[in-house]
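Blinded run. Sample ID left blank on purpose so nobody reads anything into the name before looking at the predicted structure. Input follows.
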Amino acid sequence: MDIVKLNGVIKPYLWGDKYFISSLLGTKKPEYPQGELWIGTHTMGEASLLEDDTLLSDYLHAYPTELLGPSHLKRFHEELPFLLKVLAIKDPLSLQVHPNEDQARRGYQKESNQREVVDPSQLNYKDDRQKDEVLLAITPITAVVGFRKIGDILENFSKIIVKHPDLFIGCATSEEFFKKLITLDDQLKRELLDELKTYLEIEREVDSSLFLNSVDIAKRALMLYPEDIMCFASFFLNVVHLCEGEAIHVKPTTLHAYIYGHGVELMSSSDNVLRGGLTSKKIDVDELLSTLSFHEGDSVKVTKIEHSKNFYSFNVPSNEFIFSYFEKGKQNLEQRDSLEIALVIEGNGKITWDNKEIRYKKGDILLIPAIIGTYTIENSGLVILASVPKEN
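Blinded prediction complete.
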């Protein structure tokens, strides 16, 4: 059983750019924006073997023990529990939340009778799995993640909505505030958006960094969605800046939106997205509110675990995935018992095992079987590694 190379699936989302993914893969510049590259077995975009286009799920079903290993099969059977993505974010993604495990199961079951007769875009749940995710910045990334403290929210809004000074005064929590904001009548929403436009015309936040501040984010949102009350998002959610090499863990039930930048995301193998705004797609306010958590405070960036001078993993408590990466250098991996997927972001190199080797370059995707108990990787740049945790 050898290491093989894979093809991912490109998603031509309008919020994507026309250069990052094609540059990574070394392909021709596309005519349309490319938002994401998917690497996994999710039915909405399944990877395949580079050599013969065999679907990854078919390959796993053909050689489950050799590829996945006994521990993986015991916990996840022949399913791949994670999905690896590359994100190329030119415009803000929708304001969204992902369900936890219980919510996903209940929501998927609730829509079971509609699944055969309703357009899939009108369903809230594409599968019955939670969506837990970690985003690593390859270039500087700006995002809005989780609610600010209610005092900060009310202070921000007192500066913006001067014609409606008492509108949110009685809100004691972020939950009360958000429920009131998202359910305002259309006329009042228009009046508040007019006040936001006026505020943004005169307000200047000083920021000499590479990142977008709350004013910049609101301006971008208004350009795309001028009638959407969620253009206020950067004033009630935490604005998060990720420098290159930093990561954030977005837990299920957390309201968030990625605004700008390029990154690699490792997540549960799910496409469950409940949208709250900044989109032309379906918004189900009641389902969104039933899924959200309203913890207030700053979002915490993920810490790293250093395994060696050039091998790290992110300290995220997940039963579904481990997000690791290799920097320039040489590393031996031993006592392996799980399939791994490696994505080459920068440079080139080789992997050697059992007197065999495979060479790789930027943009290559490699599937490393569990049966290869030990291997050595040598690389001149950055290689992402997605794997499954060992059984406790």
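Unblinding after everyone has recorded impressions. The longest helix spans residues 186-202.
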